[in-house]
Amino acid sequence: MVKDTEKTVTGWSVQQMAQKVAADIEDGSYVNLGIGIPELVAGYVPEGREVIYHTENGLLGMGPEPSQDEEDPELINAGKKFVTAIPGASYFHHADSFTMIRGGHIDVCVLGALQVSQKGDLANWSTGDEKAIPAVGGAMDLVAGVKTIVVITQHNTKTGEPKIVKECSYPLTGKQVVNRIYTNLAIMEVTPEGLVVKETAPGVDMELLDQRTEAALIDGR
Amino acid sequence: MVKDTEKTVTGWSVQQMAQKVAADIEDGSYVNLGIGIPELVAGYVPEGREVIYHTENGLLGMGPEPSQDEEDPELINAGKKFVTAIPGASYFHHADSFTMIRGGHIDVCVLGALQVSQKGDLANWSTGDEKAIPAVGGAMDLVAGVKTIVVITQHNTKTGEPKIVKECSYPLTGKQVVNRIYTNLAIMEVTPEGLVVKETAPGVDMELLDQRTEAALIDGR
Amino acid sequence: MINKISASVHEAVSVIHDGATVLISGFGEAGSPIELIHALIDHGASDLTVVSNNTGSGHVGLAALIAHRRVRKMICSFPRTSNSFVFPELYRKGEIELELVPQGTLAERIRSGGAGIPAFYTPASVDTPLAEGKEHREFDGKKYVLEHAIRADFALVKCRTADRYGNLLYNKTARNFGPVMCTAANTTIVQAAHIAQPGEMDPEHVVTPGIFVQHVVHIPEPAHESVLIAENKKYPW
Amino acid sequence: MINKISASVHEAVSVIHDGATVLISGFGEAGSPIELIHALIDHGASDLTVVSNNTGSGHVGLAALIAHRRVRKMICSFPRTSNSFVFPELYRKGEIELELVPQGTLAERIRSGGAGIPAFYTPASVDTPLAEGKEHREFDGKKYVLEHAIRADFALVKCRTADRYGNLLYNKTARNFGPVMCTAANTTIVQAAHIAQPGEMDPEHVVTPGIFVQHVVHIPEPAHESVLIAENKKYPW
Fold this sequence. Notes:
The complex is a heterotetramer, with two copies of chain A (221 residues) and two copies of chain C (237 residues). Chain A has 221 residues and is an alpha/beta fold. Chain A has one domain: 3-Layer(aba) Sandwich (Glutaconate Coenzyme A-transferase), CATH 3.40.1080.10. Chain A contains five helices and 13 strands. In chain A, the strands form two sheets. Chain A has a ten-stranded mixed β-sheet, with helices on both faces. Chain A has a three-stranded mixed β-sheet with strand order 7-6-9, with no helix packed on it. In chain A, helix 3 (94-102) crosses helix 4 (139-145). The longest helix of chain A has 10 residues, at 14-23. The two termini of chain A are 26 Å apart. Chain C has helices at residues 9-13, 34-43, 61-67, 86-92, 103-115, 178-183, 225-230, and strands spanning 21-24, 48-51, 71-76, 97-100, 119-122, 136-139, 142-148, 152-163, 168-169, 185-196, 215-218. In chain C, strands 1, 2, 3, 4, 8, 9, 10 and 11 form an eight-stranded mixed β-sheet that branches. A three-stranded antiparallel β-sheet of chain C has the order 5-7-6. In chain C, helix 2 (34-43) runs parallel beside helix 3 (61-67). Chain C is globular, with a radius of gyration of 18 Å. The N and C termini of chain C lie far apart (38 Å). Chains in contact: A-C, A-D, B-C, B-D, C-D. Chains A and D meet through helix 3 and helix 4 of A and helix 4, helix 5 and helix 6 of D.
C-alpha cells in the first residue's frame, strides 16, 4: 500500500544535507569529516564562523582542495585526497593525532553510515560479507572519543531498505555513539527517550518518514 | 681486630672512579648520568669515543657546563644545573623523554646509591626516615628501563657502614636492576652466581674488601 | 574568528574554582608559569590538588601558592630541592598531602589522561614501596604495575610563543611537562612570551597544536624564579 | 664518531631475517619507504609479519612485497584502497593472514611498544567484533578493552631529512606513523631525501631524536607510488 508520493519524494540533496550539518556546527569547533558525503560539509560553513578541520593522518587546520599544480602527494587527508594546510595549521604523528580523537578534544565528527539504530548504535565499516575485505580505519576511535558524532546518510539504501533501524544487523562501529542523524528526509536526534525528529524535508511528513524508517520515531518538530 | 691498613686505605678518588666508569662505556652509547658523582663521568670519556648524554628533563645531546655568561635558566639538566646542547641535540617533552628511558633506548645509566645488594637491588632514594621528605624523581623509571645500570658510590658510608650489602634495609628503587658497581675500593659485577670482584684499587686485597663489605664477594680479578 | 588570547592574566585564571585539580608545568623553574601562579594566588581559589614535578622554591610561584595554604594535595615526583622550604615544613606538620609518583609514571599518567587511555601498565616502581597496594600483572614473564590516568580541571603552562589558535612553541628544556599537561586538562591556560600571527609558526615545528589550548596570556618578560629568590622576593610583593 | 649513514640501501636492509616482524611507515603512499621496500624484495627475506596502516597499491612498494609472497601476516587498519589488488586477492584465497586493528589503537600499540608500556586500556572497538575475546574492564563506569604493545624486529621509515646521529625531520602528512614506528623496533632503518650536518636541524624542531634510529640511507629522489602506478610499473622492473 505504497503511495505515489512515497516513491517520488527524494527530500534534500546531499548538498542541502551538508548545509544543514554545517549550520549546526558552532563557531570555533574542531571537526573531523569522514570520507565521502561528509567532506561536502566543509563547503557550507556559514559566514563569520571559523571551523578547524582535523584529519586523522596528522593535520590540524586542513584547508580546501589544492589547484592541480599545487597537489602534493605528501599532503593528503584521511581519504587520501590532496588537501592544503591553512595558516595556523600543524602536522603531527599518528599517536598524537589519536590523542586528539580518543582524548575527547575533537568537538564534532561527521560520518557516513550503513545503519544507525534508534539507540545511536552505528554500523559503517562492514556489511559482514565474508568475501569483503574488512577495513575499519579510524572510525572506531572517532566514535569512541569525539564529543558529538553526526551521521550524514541517505535515509534508505538504493534498493529502498531502511538505514535507520531498531537494531543494526551489520557489525557495529560503536554502541550508543551517534548524537544526530541528517538524511535526505529528516534531521533526527538520539535522546534517552528515543529518536526525535527535529526537522523534515519539504514534502515529508511523519507518516511517510515512518514508512521509510524501521526505527521508532518521536515527532519533535 | 681492625688493622691499621684497613683504616687508612682510601682507594680510588671519585675522579678515578668516574674515569673507570667512563672507560667501560662503549663508543656510540646513549648515557644518562644521575645527579652528583655520576656527573663526573662525562669528563673522562676516552679520546675517539662519542657518547650522547640524555637528561630526563628533555634533552638528548647534553653538552658541558656553559660559561657564566652563557647560562640559561631554561637549559638545565635533571640536577637543575646549567648545561649546553651539542650540535645534533634535540629537545622533547617528558613523556617522550621517558619513552627513551622506559622503552629501553638508553644504553647506560650511572647512578649513586645508598645501598646495593649482592643481587643487584638498589636503594638510592630514601632512608625510610619518617621525617625526611620522600623524593624519587626519575630513578625508578631509569632502573626499570635502561639497559645497563651502573652504580658509582663510596664503598662505605662516612661512619664506616657497608653500602654493599646482603639485603637492602632502605626502601628499594628497584629489584635486581644493578649490573656493575664502581666504588673507591673495587669494581664489582652482579652475576647470577653473585657479586664478582673484577678489579681492586691499589692497596686493596680481598681480605680488606671483605671486611668493608657486608655482601658475599667472589674474587674474579 | 577563533581568538584564544585573554585580555589579562587575571581574567585568564578567573575560571579556576575551589577544589580544582590543576596541572602546573615546569621542572624546577624551567617552564614554571610563575605569572599565572601569582595571578591564581590573587584570584584566591583554594583546596586545590596540584600536579607538578616539584613543589616550588623560595617564597614565589608554586611555593608561594602552597605557603598561602591554597593547596590541599601535591602530586609530584620530587617535592624537595635546594631552595624549597614551604612544602617540607607543611608536610612535616602533616598539613599538606603528598602523592609521590615516579617521574616517568607521572608524565605517562598525564599523557594518558590527555589521550583517553584510562590506565596502563609500567615496570617503574615494581618491588618498591610506591607500588604497594597497586594491581600487579605479568606480561612475558616480567612484572608491571597498573597506573591510572591523571585528568585535571585546569592546566597552567608556560611557553615561548603562541598564536591566536593556541599553537605553541617552547624554549629548550622549559618544554618538559608543558605539552602533555596541555592535553590533559578541561581548560588549559598558557602564558607566552611572544604572540605570533597565524602562519608565522611553521606547521612542521608546532609542538602543541592549538586544539589543546583554551586561553593564552601574553607575558612579554616572564620573571625568573631564581632571580626572584636571589633578591629574597616573596609573593605577594 | 657516531655515523648511522649506510653505504647503500641494500646494505641497510641486509640485516632483515626471515620471520621478522617489520613496521612499515606510511598512510597510503605518503611516507611509504618505497626504496627500502624494494631493497627488501631484492634481499629476499620472507615469512614476514608486516605492520602498516594499509597494504599497498598497484604492483610496487608494499603491494609488491606481498605479491612476492614474502608476507605471512598483515597487521593494519585499512587493508583495501582504490588501487589495492594484491592483498585482497591473497586474502580471499586464504593465503595471507590479517589482524585488523582500529587506526588509533594501532598507533597507540606501536607507541606503547616503543615506550616500555606492555598494555593499556582503550575505549575504541568496545562492543564491536574487533573487541571480541579481549579482556574488558570498567573505569569510572565506562567500558574499555585491553590492548597489547607491538614491538618489532625492524622498522622501515621514510623521512625528509636525517643527520648522522639519526635525527629526523618529516614532510607534512608523510610524518604519520614514522615517529612512533622508529621507537618500537630493535633496528630502525630510515630512508631520507636529504642528509643534514649535525647542528643544521634546530634542536627545537627535531621530530625523531637520533636515539630511535639505527641506520639511515640517503635516497635523494624517492619515487612516488602514484606515479609508478600511473605508469603501470611493476617491481622488480
